[in-house]
Design a protein that fits this description.
alpha+beta, three-stranded antiparallel beta sheet, rod-shaped
Length: 194
Amino acid sequence: MAVEDVLAGVGPRLRRIRKERKVTLAALSEATGISVSTLSRLESGLRRPSLELLLPIAQAHRVPLDELVGAPPVDDPRVRAKPIVHGGRTHWPLTRRPGGLQAFKVLEPQRRLEPEPRTHEGYEWLYVLSGRLRLVLGEHDLVLTAGEAAEFDTRVPHWFGSTGEGPVEFLSLFGPQGERMHVRARPSRRGGDG
């Protein structure tokens, strides 16, 4: 939307808000310190709106400045991922861009499968939200429970799934080779450092 179009919509919006609140131009003038003629010209579009005029009007009407100028709404930040079912496992993609680091919420149903370890390029990080996740990694056969995480190079033969005791819900972050997940912590202050 062009700036001129936004400014052209301010006057009618000011009039609508004032009328909805059943406020006269005289009462608004008294509340804002802006003359009746200036308010009238703003509403009719004969006066260009400025911040000095719009701020006191927004305060008098107790509305955000955005409402007076009709600012476009901010995009909804929520990720509305559609689930993908593959091999009986449900994945919800949590990242939108192709390539680079990929994040998924995964639901593995209760089932006992024979592990079939595989290898491929990349690096993976798993975090268990609920249930028990069996992870076969190289010569290790581990069970991760809620709150536990594992990270590994996917060139090591690996497999993960349900222990067969119930469903498991976990987060999976996968990146191309060399992209590793790191937990950042603040360095502790050492004694004697100024």
